[in-house]
Write a structure and sequence with these properties.
One of its GO terms (molecular function) is translation elongation factor activity. By secondary structure, the chain is mostly beta strands. It contains 1 helix and 11 strands; from the N terminus they run E-E-E-E-E-E-E-E-E-H-E-E. The chain has a 5-stranded antiparallel sheet, covered by helices on one side. The radius of gyration is 21 Å and the shape is elongated.
């Protein structure tokens, strides 16, 4: 090849970072994450079965969707790759709750994040609403994976009043 040959690669990724990464099915463990039916899930059970003389060992995954709590299952040959979601957890301070069910959060950089709805989980929703009504300073943990975000935990900072 000469020095004048140029190679152009087209990227199908949006904004650089991929939402998932490949990992061999046999290396995924209980407590890890996996994508099943295009949903990010936390693995709650893994069992590996040996098959016949010419077959592959298979991994049976039982996992819970990290956003809606639904149980999903998948069976994958242990030598094949599975998609694993990039799961991120970020803490923000709660500033306000709007009438239409959105929260206003303070980021570390001092900006506000106003695009998250209140969680649908009744216990978590109750903790956030009563804590906010009582004037407590609340920190909300937001989990994000595969382009979705959801409030997953709440904690109070300071002693309150």
């Amino acid at each position: 090849m000469s020095d004048t040959d140029e190679h152009h690669f087209e990227s199908k990724a949006d904004s650089g970072a991929s939402k998932t990464y490949p990992q061999q099915a046999g290396a995924i463990r209980k407590g890890g994450h996996i994508v099943i039916k295009a949903r990010p899930c936390k693995v709650v059970e893994v069992s590996t079965s040996k098959t016949g003389k010419h077959g592959h060992a298979k991994c049976h995954f039982v996992a819970i969707d990290i956003f809606n709590g639904k149980k999903l299952e998948d069976i994958v040959p242990s030598s094949h790759n599975c998609d694993v979601p990039h799961v991120d957890r970020q803490d923000y301070q709660l500033i306000d709750i709007t009438d239409d069910g959105y929260v206003s959060l303070l980021t570390e950089s001092g900006n506000t994040k106003d695009d998250l709805k209140l969680p649908t989980d009744d216990v978590l929703l109750g903790q956030i609403k009563t804590g906010f009504a009582d004037g407590k300073d609340l920190i909300l943990s937001v989990m994000s994976a595969m382009g979705e975000e959801q409030i997953c935990a709440v904690k109070e900072i300071g002693g309150g009043k």
